[in-house]
Amino acid sequence: MNFRRCLTCFLPAAALAAAAVLLSGCGAQVQDTPAAAAAGYPVTVTNCGVEKTFDAPPERVVVNDINMTEMMFALGLEDRMAGYILSDAKVDNSAVSPWNDEFAATPRLGTKINKELVQGADADLVFAGWNYGFTDTSGVTPQSLENVGIASYVLTESCRQGESSARGIMDPIEALYTDITNLGRIFGVEDRARDLVDGYKQTIADAQATIPADEPAPRVFLYDGGTDQPLTVGANAAANDVITRAGGVNIFGELDDSWTSVSFAAAADRDPEVILINDYGNTTVDAKEEFLRNHPLMSTTTAVREGNFYALTYPQLTEGPQNPQAIADFAAYLGSLDAS
């Protein structure tokens, strides 16, 4: 009699698992038993129009960029992170972040995302966005990660519009609510996510209650940087909602994109009354302001002539948990102009 073939014939059902281990050691083929889903799982969320299912909360998340890292911290998920990736240009922003202690206690894995870094961190999920880490040219995309068994979550502000390279598929603040809610489900912290969203809505409502109803909305130009062509925002960037929900109007708000380049001629032609500067990087706010004051076209605008400059940091102007307070702060600034 062939012992390997007939061993299980003489075993009770309760001992079959032990027999499987013995047979596998002898070279037999034993089918793996699927792992049971964690309690409350699986959960399925829709991200950039794609359904994604999780059988358990991810445990080693690599997060790219400061705004998404702050979303994880706001949800209390630092213990689920393998670490974050942050360029040197944004380190100063993390030092003044409301979550600066969490930044200090969490590993910074590098300055630029790549597959080797992600795999070296033994990541089971990468949280990034298109042009916030995911790019076709770098080879780091949700599909390339899936090919090596790593899940991804894409920042909703950055979702691509079908086959187009333009980004943004919903109102930017709704994108924040969507991501916080989805992450809450993915990690099993739905109550925390719900409380955050409710708080964000209240902060914005309180700010909007202070906006004069009978005053025209001031024209605002968001200046990120650039000396040949300025980088600014269209309708689908979080900064657009910071401007509009604070009582202003984005002079490039008709552009169906998020962060995008325009021309100084176009910006000057629209005569902004306020210039909102994105504060990050090696170029200081003062240097950006000085450049615009001396620019032959921008120097003629109402904003420059009247000295109406205001600065917010990069994580306040990109989708993340600082957006609601940024709306409140900018609303207060615009209100001070009305009062003067």
Mean pLDDT: 90
The level of helicity is: 25-40%
- How much beta, percentage-wise? 15-25%
| Annotated CATH architecture of the largest domain | 3-Layer(aba) Sandwich
Description of the molecule:
- The structure is a single chain.
- The chain is 38% helix and 17% strand.
- It has helices at residues 3-6, 16-25, 66-74, 91-95, 100-105, 115-120, 142-147, 172-186, 190-208, 238-245, 264-269, 285-294, 302-306, 314-317, 323-339, and strands spanning 43-47, 50-54, 61-64, 81-85, 108-110, 125-130, 133-134, 151-154, 219-223, 231-233, 249-250, 259-261, 274-279, 309-313.
- By secondary structure, the chain is an alpha/beta fold.
- It folds into 3 domains: 1-33, no CATH class; 43-203, Rossmann fold (3-Layer(aba) Sandwich), CATH 3.40.50; 212-339, Nitrogenase molybdenum iron protein domain (Rossmann fold).
Topology:
Blueprint lengths: L2 H4 L9 H10 L17 E5 L2 E5 L6 E4 L1 H9 L6 E5 L5 H5 L4 H6 L2 E3 L4 H6 L4 E6 L2 E2 L7 H6 L3 E4 L17 H15 L3 H19 L10 E5 L7 E3 L4 H8 L3 E2 L8 E3 L2 H6 L4 E6 L5 H10 L7 H5 L2 E5 H4 L5 H17 L1
Parallel strand pairs: 3-4, 3-6, 4-5, 6-7, 6-8, 9-11, 9-13, 13-14
Antiparallel strand pairs: 1-2, 10-12
